[in-house]
Amino acid sequence: MYKTLERYRTCNFNSQEVKAPLDSEINYQEYLKLKTRVEFLQTTQRYYSKMNQMLLDQLFDLKSKEQELQDLNKDLRKKLQETSGENALHISWEEGGHSGASGNANEPYQGFVQHPENDSSLQIGYQQQAYMDQLNNEDMAATHHPNDRGRSGWI
Fold this sequence. Notes:
By secondary structure, the chain is mainly alpha-helical. Helix content is 72%, strand content 0%.
């Protein structure tokens, strides 16, 4: 029996000594696998970090450009409103009472203008008597028309 126990001990201790190197080798291989995995994850994290930073920079640039464009649009709207207001005033000015007796902005003002052929004062050889006769004729015409109520022809 003693021999059997001794053999059992020797086999049992030898197996533990042999088992210990196998466990350490397995642990080391597992360590290498995990180390490789960590390095891969760190590399991936650095890559995505750089990409994320680049996208954030682009986003910041786009937001600043958007703000500039919004400010520019605001200024252009203000100018457009001012221009529209000025155009409305200009159109109302042209269509208002300042465009002449006819009210049409495209027609020239015909106010007190008299054609030069009808103006005796512009004729060569003008004489005072002809002018006085013309005035007397206008006065006579005004007195014969009761609707005019004594107004002269130019009013």
